[in-house]
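Propose amino acids for all 314 sites.
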């Protein structure tokens, strides 16, 4: 199957075959990243603009790194120093970036749907690096890539996502990818942050941490997304930690071989104890490293590259 998409906007719209193609391509690029010369010429002569209008450490740096490893020229524009602070609209900012002859735009924005909007008004590929509480597709791709590396097939695997599901774009992208890959997904946390209506996505909704964690092979922690909450969704962080924080006792309820994941940034001592975040079951930094190869795959494929080429040449 050739790759045909120009944009990466959501994981909801990808097929299993497309997720497999991205993962296969990422695995090939990961091998190139282990060589002494880590660069490949795949996007030489192309210019990629990273337009980040919300804060980011991992995603922005991984997209920068990925573009450089593909030999593209990369320009990162931070919202706080852009002319959006002078009242310029997203439409004008994006059209100016296109007029400056960018070949691709990677966007993070607080408004859900902003990458889709840009894909309709621009003639260059648009990659969603996180839009409000909607989706964070490259995070979902790197998380499932990491799970597949560790567990093999995800068919029938029990994956638990614990925390602030309601405001999490990471949760939504992971749910879409995990369901397509055959995993059994349970979401758990306080009822205000884990509403029953998420069940329509094909996941089990739980507010009982012990039964949710029992025999899970993956637990993914999410932080409380204060920046998207207009109302207090629980009495205090201390109460959240005492009821839903992952500590040593609660981690003992997991499958003995379970891995612990977190997309970052971590709030140590809130959703996860430090000794678990830094412990042998944690793959948190592996997720970050895999983010480079996965984003190389996305940039390469959406620029018109084909999976077969990189799989045989890398
Ligand atoms: N996981 C993630 O999106 O982290 P950043 O906000 O630091 O990019």
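Proposal:
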């Amino acid at each position: 199957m050739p790759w045909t998409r120009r944009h990466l906007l959501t994981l909801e719209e990808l097929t299993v075959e497309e997720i497999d193609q991205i993962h296969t391509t990422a695995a090939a690029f990961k091998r190139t990243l282990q060589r002494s010369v880590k660069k490949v010429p795949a996007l030489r002569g192309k210019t990629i603009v990273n337009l980040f209008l919300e804060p980011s450490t991992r995603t922005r740096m991984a997209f920068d790194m990925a573009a450089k490893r593909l030999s593209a020229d990369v320009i990162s524009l931070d919202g706080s120093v852009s002319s959006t602070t002078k009242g310029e609209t997203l439409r004008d900012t994006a059209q100016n970036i296109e007029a400056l002859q960018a070949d691709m735009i990677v966007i993070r924005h607080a408004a859900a749907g902003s990458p889709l909007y840009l894909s309709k008004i621009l003639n260059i590929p648009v990659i969603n690096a996180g839009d409000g509480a909607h989706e964070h597709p490259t995070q979902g791709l790197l998380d499932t890539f990491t799970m597949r590396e560790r567990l093999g097939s995800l068919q029938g695997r029990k994956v638990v996502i614990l925390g602030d599901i309601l405001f999490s774009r990471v949760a939504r992208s992971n749910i879409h990818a995990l369901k397509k890959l055959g995993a059994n997904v349970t979401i758990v946390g306080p009822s205000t942050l884990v509403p029953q209506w998420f069940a329509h996505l094909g996941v089990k909704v739980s507010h009982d941490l012990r039964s949710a964690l029992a025999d899970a092979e993956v637990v993914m922690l999410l932080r409380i997304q204060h920046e998207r909450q207009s109302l207090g969704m629980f009495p205090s962080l201390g109460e959240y930690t005492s009821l839903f924080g992952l500590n040593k006792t609660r981690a003992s309820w997991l499958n003995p071989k379970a891995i612990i994941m977190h997309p970052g940034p971590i709030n140590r001592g809130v959703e996860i104890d430090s000794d678990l975040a830094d412990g042998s079951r944690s793959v948190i930094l592996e997720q970050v490293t895999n983010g480079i190869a996965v984003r190389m795959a996305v940039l390469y494929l959406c620029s018109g590259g084909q999976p077969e080429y990189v799989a045989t040449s890398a």
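The longest helix spans residues 284-302. The pocket of phosphoric acid mono(formamide)ester is lined by residues 56-60, 130, 136, 139, 263-265 (CB under 6 Å).
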